[in-house]
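Q: Hi! First time doing this. I have a protein sequence and I read that you can turn it into a structure. Is that right? Here it is:
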Amino acid sequence: MVHIKQIPKDILKAMYRTMVMIRQFEDTVYYMFLEGKLPGTVHLYQGQEAVAAGVCANLRKEDVIFSTHRADGHAVAKGVSLDSCMAELFGKATGCCKGKGGAMHLGDMDAGMPPAIAIVGGGLPLAAGCGLAFKYKKQDNVAVAFFGDGAVNEGAFHESVNMAAIWNLPVIFVCENNLYGASTHISKVMKAENVADRASAYGIPGVIADGNDMIDVYVKTGEAVKRAREGKGPTLLECKTYRRGGHSRGDSNLYRDKKEEEIWLARDPLVIARGKMVREGMLTEMEVKDIDEQVKTGIEKAIKFAEESPFPAEEEMFNDLWAD
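A: Yes, that's right. Below is the predicted 3D structure, encoded as structure tokens:
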């Protein structure tokens, strides 16, 4: 087991800061949506911050991630700017997808994140294809596919993992298992105890990480990334976590067991990370406050930027489209 002091302090602080950015961004977006300031819908990421932060801290800018309808956390962690993320949620022309994608399609190719795909399991084949391109070009980059437990019974999951396995592609398949595919508990749709158990059918490593512990996610992702860069093929990484809110707007979580909620919500990933770092002298209480204030200022700036930005012009409606 890797001790926290074996991880460079600057990496730990950067991961913690990323988690704070995601949490504050999501909390702010939630209230703005309730106030009617944002169009469309939202699928918030609170509670799963350690996964995005821990995974992306192992990646280079040139590595590529593929996200889902719950894209905010991944975008922030991969380096898509707060300004462009917020503007995209407002539907503004300065958004990362020019205001045409919205909450479910955040992304920025310059940051190594193609626009997210809202189709369940839709990003997995693209990650496999991207991994094939890296291998073909003899590049040591990796592709990461984020997906929820609701995607593991899609054909795209099995086909993509099998393809990556037989061709030893540099792909990390990251399942954010928050126990529910929308309102359906995973136990109702899968007999295996763990998603990671399915890796054995493809002859690749299946690894389980505590998805609420950024250090565990960081270390286990690091091992998978090292393996991929060395040409040893993909890894199925299951991060067991829990969303703090509903699946999407208006979801009051009435289908979740209250005792289950109590246990999981007590394991807040920010509290866990902060507690470990402060106890081990890797972060001071003053630094915690400074990070909170700096992030708050950045989000206020992003809101102002989004509010003052123009909407896309009508003549832009059919630009950036592709059809055969």
